[in-house]
Design goal:
The protein contains no helices and 9 strands. The protein has strands at 12-21, 27-32, 39-49, 56-63, 72-81, 86-90, 96-98, 102-108, 114-123. The relative contact order is 0.40. It has 124 residues and is mainly β. The strands form 2 sheets. Strands 1, 3, 6, 7 and 9 form a 5-stranded antiparallel beta sheet that branches. Strands 2-8-4-5 form a 4-stranded antiparallel beta sheet, with no helix packed on it.
Amino acid sequence: MANPNLNAPTAVYAANTFVALTSTSETQLISNASTSNKVYLVDSVLVSNVDGASAADVTVTVYNAETNTGTGYRLARTVSVPADASLVPILKDVGMSVKEGQSVYVTASAASDLEVVAYWKEYQ
């Protein structure tokens, strides 16, 4: 498992993903393969409630595995996102890294109410 030197990377790539939480099951947001030779520096994660009438809760969980196996550690747990509002559980000022073999999953309390956008930089 490599952990690239962030002071002298061989390459830096911008990355993002967009996920609609269509169920109340954990949904993969970010996964860094155990053989990627990369570290991801997450700049932001934004959760938007697209339901105009009801709040929905979001949970953001980090795993020390490529998938949601083993023990999950919550960055946010059942945090309410009001109707037609947004929540930013990860900001660049605080940030987080996702090293090889780690992943981030999100869970909604109500299906099809929340959408999630994540932005990060991949260091190689």
